[in-house]
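Checklist before submission:
- one chain only
- standard amino acids only
- sequence pasted in full

Submission:
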Amino acid sequence: MGSSSILGLECSGYLVEDGKINTDKKVMAVVSGGAYAEYVAVKEKNVINIPDNIDLIQAAAIPESWLTAYQLCRIAGVKKSDYCLIHAAASGVGTALVQLIGLYEAESICVVSNEKKLNFCISLGRGHGHGFLRKDTHAFNKILNLTHFHGCSVIFDCVGATEFDSNINAAANDCRWVVYGFLGGSRIGEFNLNKLMEKRISLHSSTLRNRSDDYKAELLQEFSQEIMPKFASGELNPVIDSIYTSVDHIKEAHHKMENDMNIGKIVVQWK
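Returned file contents:
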């Protein structure tokens, strides 16, 4: 349906047909807002069937985060042997990116806020994961050593302004840099385009929320064909930090997210 001012971009549940809930049909969907509700109106082409081995809680953690990550990988053209810098790697999108990058046989370099998140993200990469803490003063040297002194061929940036200079330094020649958020602000005091040109950096931006239904439907179809079988086989898994079983705890859930306390997704059940 159209964009909504109500929060929530993804959901899972049972189909309602002719006014009756069909518990034999488990589905998940990405929407343009409005998923914070007991009932959600979704166009049929924006719905994905849930594999038998995935429950509704797991499914709720897939659509928006994994479609965003999948879209970012397509935009960046991630390929085997790429070194991909991931900011906020312990987030829902970040943990999806780490797994997808490993699936494509590329290397992930995770930027996180604490040791617990760092160890988790590295292990999530299954041999393709690396990383460092956000405030690590030796980060640049670690990136150089990891990338054999070339720098990162891909940067996934949800931070923006505060990491602009460090991203420039970390980028390899011909780096594909994709901006999809502004946790650190969107305004850069002195934006020197020459810095991009010196390394031939391609700067892209992307968001899923304001994409058309047709775009989302096409993306969903490709995602269903290429990625969903990997969930069914257990090669990929949604990372869930915590589950809140009542809307009465919604403030608590948001507090946890806003204070950077989660690893992966926070799921709220509407009962």
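Reviewer check: The chain has a mean pLDDT of 93.
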